[in-house]
Design goal:
- By secondary structure, the protein is an alpha+beta fold.
- The protein has 8 helices and 6 strands.
- A 4-stranded antiparallel beta sheet has the order 1-2-3-4, with helices on one face. A two-stranded antiparallel sheet has the order 5-6.
- Helix 2 crosses helix 5.
- The N and C termini lie far apart (about 145 Å).
């Protein structure tokens, strides 16, 4: 029974002072609404020690990170909802480890919910501004998101299909480069062309050989020489000689 009693025990919700939390949230809303771009820039340029000192002097339950995040969230919210006008009563939702404070706010362009979350030490943890959209605006955004998503998918699919269709040209390109490489290697391996030797046309004209032989024999006889052993074996025509009719 003791074990079951321990298991069934529920941790109590945070204890908080409603007026203190209300003052802190009102101060934050008023300060964020009055802070301009130059003021936010000055806060961002301060050191951690300087920011913590400023917050401690103001006596607000904010940390450096939560305070700067609240300023940024407020700027983003006013861009979306327009200029701040007013807010309604706070709704407190405590739990065992945090306290959620929500208020409906009216802005120039649209209404929104401002939510502050405090940690178990009742220090500000986060600030959010959730704009209210009509069903038509929600459907419009959903439609745009759907079109954008499907359009992106179809564009990628078209790109992939075009890329796949180009694969058929890859074998032809490979064959072209392969043949080009073979042609270059063949040209490098081929020996230099050797000039064909000039074959002098031989004349087998027996009559011409006999005439030349007789002329040479007569010349040798007049010169007192001997023609023994003299034989005309071949006659070669010089390339520069030309026959005339």
């Amino acid at each position: 029974m003791l074990c079951f009693t321990a298991c069934g025990s529920k941790k109590e919700n945070l204890q908080y002072d409603k007026s203190t939390i209300t003052q802190a949230t009102d101060f934050l809303i008023e300060y964020c609404n009055s802070a301009d771009a130059d003021t936010i820039e000055q806060w961002n340029k301060m050191t951690d020690f300087q920011i913590e000192s400023q917050l401690n002097q103001a006596g607000v339950p904010f940390t450096k990170d939560s305070f700067l995040a609240a300023l940024d969230a407020w700027q983003q919210g006013t861009k979306e909802c327009g200029e701040y006008v007013s807010h309604g009563d706070y709704k407190f939702e405590p739990s065992s480890d945090e306290l959620k404070v929500t208020a409906s706010a009216k802005f120039k362009d649209r209404d929104a919910d401002i939510t502050f979350v405090f940690d178990e030490d009742l220090y500000l943890d986060s600030t959010t501004i959730d704009a209210h959209y009509s069903i038509g605006e929600i459907m419009e955004k959903a439609g745009l998101n759907t079109i954008l998503g499907m359009g992106t998918v179809f564009v990628i699919l078209i790109f992939i299909s075009i890329l796949i269709s180009l694969f058929k040209y890859i074998p032809a390109l490979e064959e072209k480069f392969k043949n080009k490489g073979k042609a270059e290697s063949t040209q490098e391996a081929a020996p230099a062309a050797v000039a064909a030797p000039v074959v002098e046309e031989a004349s087998n004209d027996d009559e011409l050989a006999a005439v030349i032989s007789a002329a040479i024999a007569a010349y040798e006889a007049e010169a007192g020489g001997s023609t023994d052993g003299f034989v005309v074996r071949s006659i070669k025509r010089r390339p520069s000689n030309k026959w005339h009719a």
